[in-house]
């Protein structure tokens, strides 16, 4: 089959052109920056759990280089609670691998404003049905979280509170994983919740102990 | 609490410095490129399912811009089969949201060489136990896939075959989702498997119909 | 002759690899950003006169895109006085072209700390001979400028003062060109002096009227 | 005077925002890449002589990093012949400094298609007057160069020939500088002429010995 028919669509061609640029600039122009990394093993210091939202790409938003961030992305950057059965737990598997095999030193849960998943949750809390056989159960993980019952009627403020509360809920769920609680206790792992205000271009942060979000960047 | 104690670690400071650069270059210098996007809705054309591996960041590897790629990342870029129960299916939820709500036109499953998850699978197929309460079941999803029983003894070739086979398996699993099969059938959605050879800096591609990987970029 | 022997040296190969990346990212991936520009005419708004110093590249330092800055670079970012004879006046020719043909709206003279040209001038003012048949006369253009006779004995402070004074001298020389004085007077052209403190990573600015440099970026 | 009135114009604000991004990404995020360079001395390997044209920025076109290229830019990337009088020879001073003080190993003269300076020369050769008190004499440096008298009537081909001929002329003029001829002879300096075809996105190269331009990048 002719190669061009494999990926002839403009959006895919654009990705392939981007790959050619990446190859030229990283492999050809400055191989010293990535050669050992690409031929050896990864040693990221950070596990980042982010939303799948196309506007909040962690590598773009933090100007990361290859090798720096081990990244899980799902709808609304959720961490489910520890549930060691035989099910397929994609997020938990990635967390386990990052913490126990790669021994990252930091976990960052990165949420954001204007999150579609959280908007679906808000609608659900208002009595509307969430569309989706999978999105529904996934997002309803949050219905028990503390702030879910507090609404002010100001939809933007409510959304922000829910988004930040969901981040804290993920941090709390991380602490239910024994291998995480243990490392946090002995000081070899930190847990961080960050919220990206996409309109104001600011990052806010909290931790399991300091649960009020504060601006991290002036 | 003083802000600096929230994220004082060098790896986190580096991410915050990167964010400041992102903000200056996107929000201040060239707001025209992202303003509507950040204040409005996302309209990505592509759902990309990639590995959590820090070396294979899709935005870096394809030089993506904010808004272009809706991204799911998990260990070994796996798509589980359609399983519409009430469990927490993070990958399936993201796929459902991208396809039915955002109406992406393309799905790309992006695998890569030297994949730790696939190495764990290879070890398992060789009779070794896979470490991890979550990684084990997650990666054993693949034990029934066609090529799992074919080994040549050449470990690099075996790894490549498993990595590519896992991508095809994910494409096949995508087709078990009714909302995907239907859109593929009516021509509004394409499924693409890409394999990134990290050593040679090449992208290879296949589709559900053309299952032999071919070089996509010279 | 075989192509590779033309540019086989590593430093040149690195430039060619960078060009391949540029081509992939600009011409192939996002042609909409430059196509009209590359096939049509330039319409820069800014004439920038900068030093040849490899550390102070204006496009890198301001994250410019193709088409934004019309750039002259010489040792110590000097503008000679208006001298309309038949000599070869490279800097004056570029200024004339930018202002009268391209009709830029702003001129920026960008100097910097730790400037080798200014260090040569300081040595000359101290009674040492400046090396160089061409560098000598070029840099001695400045010996009449106001601050040349004021030294404090603090070599860093002296260097900063000379660097900033040289920028003001270039702004004053720009005003000796009739086609510039006229446009400044009628408000269609602004003259700006910027000084890049390379150690502190700050930009300072002055104008012909406001001759004390002030920090431009927090 | 309030700082904002110094540089309140959008084009200048855009440059300052770019500078803030540069500072965040280079000085704060990855200081290890530039710290020694910015606090110490430059050691570029390449002297690049390029056109002032805003579309042909050498750092953008070759993806250069700070410290790599010592750059002279003037109209049409001309090198005047060796003329050791007391005049202000900006291009010669920069060449002298790069070769004798910085001891670069390579000189690249980078010309390009669709060059306004060369179009002015073509008009002059056709009997039209070149506008400009400075542009005129500057560009008429080329009137004696070999190809100036050969026209085919095909204006694109003529322009390309003139552009490439002007590059060769600059290489020949470089050889009239004793300190260059000597280093070329003893093999410590190479002279290279590159021509950037902006429409086709290709680089072509020649040298003083191999005067027919060949494609450098596939």
UniProtKB/TrEMBL annotation, chains A, B, C, D:
Amino acids binding Zn(2+): 51, 53, 112, 115
Co-factor: note: Binds 1 zinc ion per subunit.
Domain of life per record: Bacteria
Names of required cofactors: Zn(2+)
GO molecular function, a single term: zinc ion binding
Gene3D superfamilies with a match to the protein in the record: Carbonic anhydrase
InterPro entries on file: Beta_CA_cladeB, Carbonic_anhydrase, Carbonic_anhydrase_CS, Carbonic_anhydrase_sf
Catalysed conversion reaction: hydrogencarbonate + H(+) = CO2 + H2O
Keyword Metal-binding in record: yes
Known EC number: 4.2.1.1
GO annotation, biological process: carbon utilization
Pfam family, one: Pro_CA
Sorted UniProt keywords: Lyase, Metal-binding, Zinc
Stated role: Reversible hydration of carbon dioxide.
Family affiliation: Belongs to the beta-class carbonic anhydrase family.
Protein name: Carbonic anhydrase
Natural source organism: Roseospirillum parvum
């Amino acid at each position: 089959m002719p190669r061009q028919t494999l990926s002839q669509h403009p959006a895919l061609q654009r990705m392939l052109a981007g790959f050619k640029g990446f190859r030229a600039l990283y492999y050809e122009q400055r191989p010293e920056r990535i050669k050992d990394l690409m031929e050896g093993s990864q040693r990221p210091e950070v596990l980042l759990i982010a939303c799948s939202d196309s506007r909040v790409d962690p590598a773009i938003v933090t100007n990361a280089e290859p090798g720096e961030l081990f990244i899980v992305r799902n709808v609304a950057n959720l961490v489910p609670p520890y549930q060691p059965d035989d099910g397929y737990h994609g997020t938990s598997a990635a967390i386990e691998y990052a913490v126990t095999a790669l021994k990252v030193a930091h976990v960052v849960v990165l949420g954001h404003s204007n999150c579609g998943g959280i908007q679906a949750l808000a609608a659900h809390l208002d009595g509307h049905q969430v569309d989706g056989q999978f999105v529904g159960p996934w997002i309803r993980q949050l219905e028990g979280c503390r702030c879910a019952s507090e609404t002010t009627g100001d939809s933007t403020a409510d959304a922000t509170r829910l988004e930040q509360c969901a981040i804290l809920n993920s941090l709390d769920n991380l602490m239910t994983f024994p291998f995480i609680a243990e490392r946090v206790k002995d000081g070899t792992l930190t847990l961080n919740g960050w919220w990206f205000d996409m309109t104001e271009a600011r990052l806010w942060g909290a931790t399991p102990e300091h649960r009020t979000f504060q601006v991290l960047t002036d």
